Amino acid sequence: MFFTEDEDLEKGELILRRKYNTLSKDELSLIKPIWALRLEEMQSPHHPDLFKKFPEQFHEYCFLKAKVETLLLDSDLRYSELDANNIFDNRWHHEYRYITTLERWQQGLPVDPPLCDYNKELKVSDGRHRIVLCYYLGINTIPISVRAEKVDLIREKFSFEQM
After folding, report:
1. CA–CA dist 123, 74 (Å, integer)
2. E-state strands within 6-160
3. Nearest CA-CA partner of 20 in 34, 30, 35, 7
4. Average pLDDT over residues 133-150
5. Alpha-carbon separation of residue 38 from 97, 123, 148 (angstroms)
């Protein structure tokens, strides 16, 4: 594990860490998730103009309403090192993802729904930290993005709802 002490962080990172990890769980759960539910809103953290470059790729996806607990227990996340009961554990490479998501939501900015797939088991391709954060905050259901050809299979297998 890579633990990160305050003195190892940049000033902006330290401000964000202190802003969120000093809030109680009840205070954090007052921050409401905002999801990018229009394909044009979706971003990739590594390629912010991805939709503009490859619009046809985004139209292959649909949104489902998924149970957070199912995503944690019945997907490849169950093998993850992420602790859904303790998101502020001094591992900055994880904390940073939770904190930047919280910061976007608090600013009223949408975040992409997690991207999931099914191949013998439910897999979280992108968005592990968003799922864990929602579980920690007590959120029961969230949207997920799945390839159109897998929608029926995933809906039937996990009782997720079409959005």
Report:
1. 9
2. 61-67, 115-118, 122-126, 141-147
3. 30
4. 94
5. 22, 22, 15
- Angle subtended at Cα 87 by Cα 65 and Cα 113, rounded to the nearest 5 degrees: 25
Whole-structure pTM over 0.90, yes or no? Answer: no
Amino acid at 21: N
SS3 call for 59: coil
Tell me the CB-side half-sphere exposure of residue 124, using CA atoms within 13 A: 24
The answer to whether 117 and 43 are in contact (CB under 8 A) is: no
Q: What is the pLDDT of residues 52-101, one digit of tens each?
A: 655 666 567 889 999 999 999 999 888 887 888 888 877 767 788 899 99
Q: What is the pLDDT of residues 22-61, one digit of tens each?
A: 899 999 999 999 999 886 677 655 455 555 655 666 567 8
Contacts of range 39-48, beta carbons closer than 8 Å, 24 or more positions apart:
41/110, 42/112, 42/145, 43/112, 44/112
Residues 6+ apart with CB under 8 A from 92: 2, 4, 8, 9, 13, 17
- The CA-atom distances, in angstroms, between 116 and each of 61, 62, 131, 150 are 10, 11, 11, 10
What the block records as the tokens of 162 is 């079409």
